[in-house]
Write a structure and sequence with these properties.
32% of the residues lie in helices and 20% in strands. It has 924 residues and is of the alpha/beta class. Its EC number is 1.9.6.1.
Length: 924
Amino acid sequence: MDGTGAADGPGGRRITRSTCCYCGVGCGVLIHSERIAQGERITGVEGDPEHPANFGRLCSKGRTLADSARSLHGRALWPELRGRRQDARRPVDWALALDTVAERLAGIVERHGPDAVAFYISGQLLTEDYYVFNKLAKGLLGTNNIDTNSRLCMSSAVTGYKLAFGADGPPTCYEDLEHAKTVLFAGSNAAYAHPVLFRRLEEAKARDPDVRWIVVDPRRTDTAAMADLHLAIQPGTDVALFNGMLHHLVWEGLLDEAFIAAYTTGFPELKQLLRDYTPRMSAEICGVPVQDLVAAAEWFGRSPAALSLYCMGLNQSAHGTDKNLALIHLHLATRQLGRSGAGPFSLTGQPNAMGGREVGGMATMLAAHREIGDDAHRAEVEALWKLAPGSLSPRPGLAAVELFEALHSGKVKAVWIACTNPVHSMPDIGRVREALQRAEYVVVQEAFADTDTVPYADALLPASTWGEKDGTVTNSERRISRVRAAVAAPGQARPDWWIAREVARRIEARLAAPGAAPLFEADAPATIFDEHRALTVGRDLDIGGLDYLRLESDGPQQWPFPAAAAQGQARRYADGVFATADGRARFHATPYKPVAEPTSARYPLRLLTGRLRDQWHGMSRTGRVPELFAHSPEPGLRMHPDDAARRGLKIGELVRVSSKRGELVLPLELSDEVGSGTVFAAMHWSGQHLSSGGINEVSQPAVDARSRQPELKHAAVRVEKAGLGWHLLAARRGDVLALRTAVQPLLKECGYAGLSLHAEADAPEGVAWLVLRAAAAEAMPADWLAALDAALALAAGPDTPDVLEYRDMRRGLLKRVAWRSDAGDSFIDGLLWSGAQPGGESLLRSALGGGAWRGPRLAAFSATAEVARDPVVCVCRQVTESAIRAEVRNGADVPALKQRLGCGTVCGSCVPQLTRLAREAASA
């Protein structure tokens, strides 16, 4: 490859070195692209064997990135403006769009002051994008009302690190995964959320069977199923658990007393608190056996190297900061940090949550880990940005939940949302919808035009996305990687930094004081990065020694990387000197507090949320890839079988989930991975694939008092039969994203509707199956059915001779099947089944199987036995659960499954489930 990270091949083919756009692991990728008559297109992706985060590995999501980028259906391709709120948006050119947005925002600032405008941005932006937005809000407009969806996932980890160590940023690195002898997973289903790192952990454990895994999680996830010790605590009791473990360490003399005395403060006060947290009392609070709590403490305290990996289960809580601190206390008290294989390691959920923190792209911080309330820190940024003294606001801005509350109340008049979908991801989304409806002006900057937030936009600004952008990201181990464009952005889409800069320049021309230095002269990602790194010099995250040239020649680098350094620092605080004023780490009293919303007679169940293996966030990207639906094809609510039996609920039945804030309908799944009294739903399903906005219809907006992170993991809910008397199953084979675009507007009118995509083996590119399941209190009106027929081209009539129909008006039953012929054989091409009871599943299974229809076509209308779905476990090799169970019954272990079926041999994301299935058979 040349110095730009790209290499040309024959026939217009090209390979571009870049970084994956999903989780915070920050995997390197090689993007394959080619020139075609219409321009350029991405044709494939593979792991970069030279990238130190993944060494060529990719998970199921990363492997299918090219599939997510091929179709333009659903992309935002040109700017759109709305004249009045009730008007439809119309396409315009960039000049008018930029002028209009700048004029509207500047006018609001002039009338109401700078804090009447807010920005809500994303951990999926590149660092350079983040930097320009931050400078626009804080430097030009003078408001700190700029927050990010990283507030929803990482702010408690940030606050915990700052309170304990004096500065943000994990003190660990990925090499520690190989060197740890005890690994404590806390609120992290790493097998699903960070699968490439999990592969490294699996290999380290295979090399050294003495390595012990402890998993703290209310659910028996695939990660928990592989653990040596699973502490299935009651939701929200993490602080009690960690305090009880530390109590045991104190009692048994397993502390590093010399380190505590020389390098920390606050331990005597914490020790006083710990007296109340005996292992027995803590175990009773947590609902785990006391011997298991003691075993966890012993393994941790006596380990040569203990590493903790934690994620949303700790952070997304009204007590998230205390949970982070209580875990960090275990490391400080035993000096399990600053050396190989040891340390508290917060795993970021988004590709550039860390980069956003570096540039100060949140409402409660300034650039380069500076504090908004610190006069000297503000003066430093003012000098570097050439602002007049006193230009930066000393008031912290509004964090995410407060930002939308202020929009709801009218305190904030306008919001600019970029690269995120708050109408799906924020808690209590009914109130978020109301806030956006009440706002005076809403700007949405987005690559995808079909997200839940786009309908509220007065201005839609089309942004480029992965494979089309240049810049940098920082992963969970503080490693900065280049992101490179493999193809040009489609239509009129533009880079996020460019859009923000162009609006900023127009506002600057109107609002800036005469003679003020221009703020937005940087005209390329490299020059923006140079501005950013200049702000870091002398700070704890100093990257004065890094620029694009260094990243091109030496590859991804960790910070800190000051000017005189030969390389970045892998581990922090090895010398015991911390980033506090006196150089000492801080212990803090962390009393256990109950969850923010306890259960009650009316809402007796605890709702947990989490991830699916093959989907990511709101599915704007992964939801475009049929193969990624195979493992979990439909939304659902998981409930313990005993709880379902007590309520008279059956698997597959539609149930209504209600909280104090809202409700939604979901199909019921039965699973003993959740304890009695607890239910679970995945976070990913949004209005793109559901009639509702997803599980955040019922989540609670309570926030942590210090980190301002909302409680997204726990809510008190009620579950009951949905009582919907009309059901529909429809499916169509074709250009699946075009079909989805046509059907989506119809979903919200149903009591329940769920869309899923299904791949078909050997089908032409872009051809797959779209499946719609819907239900309502009574039969949907004729115009809705006509619109569905039009969207799916399933209406029976003289113009569609290959559509057969059966109607029973007395029973309200409609069956319709579309056919295609190929080489003399008949194949099902679509179907629709509606009536008082669900039906048509066996015919759907036959259609999705792709085989030719045997027998007369009219036989498709016959009543057939419903068949249970056979879940796909290995997406890469399309290996089903039944095939795996059959081999396991014959004595196959995981290596034998890999050899016989090929599962687990490509990306490895299914290996934890293979291990669980093999262990279940062995224990049985």
